[in-house]
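Need residues for this backbone.
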């Protein structure tokens, strides 16, 4: 659809990086319009992971999606860091598969000006880096208010968030962090190697002096269905402009005849211009927004999304800075023994799968399930980060072996990216 398209302006994140002296090498491969979990829905072909050079094609593994090209480039040491977009896990999942760091900041923290929209209320520009230091530095460069993006957090809001977090942290002195383990993320589909690595990571953090406690996020089980209703609905609206008349390519035979003999303009353009996965999500979104279905699907999904956000707010020690304006008396009493500073859970159900297995999947729903651990934080708009750790396999547990990377996902309250970096420091070298 956009094969010969050239943007008339530069994205804000790229401008900020260039002004900081960063060298932009080029663009990376990805799923079409960011729709996919394995970077196989691309006009350029699927992305292969370069964690290590496999001996033959049959041993090639998926780089994850949709920002698989960015993760593969970082893992192959082609660059220090790369930019990607995360709608439901599209930065964190590739980072987990490729053994690199992947940060999805709080919604509105980084400008989306220049990003081709998939789902406006979920799209977030993220960072993939070789290590924590590089990832944190790139985030600092691109995290700023942008008047071109109406969803970008204002400077006054950023200052208020930083002040609120600083007061809350100061009131605790040098106490270790409280780290929560969400029980609902221990799903039956977790591979033995991911589960054992999760346990080992928890033990490691506990040995470093941090307090680890179980927490419950009861509405997590509704996250996946909620995400695919809302994301597809917004995608259906956003991609309506690609009709070949106002935007995008146009087929020479730009019409399609119906059974009644009517000719539908630009139907053939959209049929040829979009890939199977994009067309599938447009149809799903269009249906959920239809008059007969909007109440049962889209409206209900919005209500469930609010419940998911409420779950996160109830377990974090910091109140949500956009919902609860700080007061002089709240900073000292905002912490509770029943709340935590950071959540830790796996980022993916398994290590990177074989690319041949992914391409052989019979149903697209098989790939949708892979987002089950990443979409909750996207729906809540909170920051989340995939941190690579060495695989740990318990004796007699079975499952995968070797040196496959496992991505551990850290999640914190809105605006508290610093907490993610603090915990990731404790995981370095693990």
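Answer:
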């Amino acid at each position: 659809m956009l094969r010969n398209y050239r943007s008339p302006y530069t994205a804000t994140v790229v401008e900020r990086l260039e002004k900081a002296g960063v060298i932009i090498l080029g663009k990376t491969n990805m799923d079409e319009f960011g729709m996919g979990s394995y970077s196989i829905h691309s006009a350029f072909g699927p992305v292969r992971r370069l964690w290590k050079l496999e001996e033959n094609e049959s041993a090639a593994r998926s780089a994850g999606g949709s920002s698989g090209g960015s993760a593969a480039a970082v893992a192959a040491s082609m660059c220090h860091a790369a930019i990607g977009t995360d709608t439901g896990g599209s930065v964190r999942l590739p980072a987990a598969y490729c053994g690199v760091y992947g940060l999805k900041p709080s919604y509105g923290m980084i400008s989306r000006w220049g990003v081709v929209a998939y789902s406006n209320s979920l799209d977030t520009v993220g960072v993939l880096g070789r290590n924590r230091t590089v990832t944190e530095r790139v985030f600092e460069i691109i995290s700023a208010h942008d008047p071109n993006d109406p969803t970008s957090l204002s400077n006054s809001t950023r200052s208020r968030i930083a002040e609120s977090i600083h007061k809350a942290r100061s009131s605790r002195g040098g106490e270790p962090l409280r780290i929560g383990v969400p029980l609902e993320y221990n799903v039956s589909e977790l591979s033995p190697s991911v589960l054992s690595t999760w346990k080992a990571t928890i033990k490691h953090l506990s040995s470093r002096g941090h307090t680890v406690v179980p927490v419950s996020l009861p509405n997590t089980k509704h996250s996946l269905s909620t995400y695919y209703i809302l994301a597809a609905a917004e995608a259906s609206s956003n991609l309506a402009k690609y009709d070949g008349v106002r935007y995008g390519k146009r087929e020479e035979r730009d019409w399609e005849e119906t059974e009644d003999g009517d000719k539908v303009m630009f139907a053939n353009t959209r049929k040829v211009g979009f890939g199977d996965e994009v067309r599938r999500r447009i149809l799903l979104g269009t249906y959920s927004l239809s008059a007969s279905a909007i109440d049962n699907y889209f409206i209900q999904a919005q209500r469930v999304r609010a419940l998911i956000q409420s779950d996160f707010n109830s377990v974090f020690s910091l109140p949500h800075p956009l919902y609860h304006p700080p007061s002089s008396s709240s900073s000292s009493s905002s912490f509770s023994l029943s709340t935590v500073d950071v959540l830790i859970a796996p980022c993916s159900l398994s290590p990177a799968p074989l690319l041949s297995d992914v391409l052989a999947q019979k149903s697209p729903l098989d790939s949708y399930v892979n987002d089950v651990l990443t979409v909750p934080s996207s729906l809540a708009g909170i920051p989340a980060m995939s941190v690579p750790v060495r695989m740990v396999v318990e004796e007699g547990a079975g499952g995968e072996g070797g040196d496959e990377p496992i991505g551990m996902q850290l999640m914190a309250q809105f605006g508290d990216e610093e907490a993610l970096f603090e915990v990731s420091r404790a995981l370095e070298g693990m």
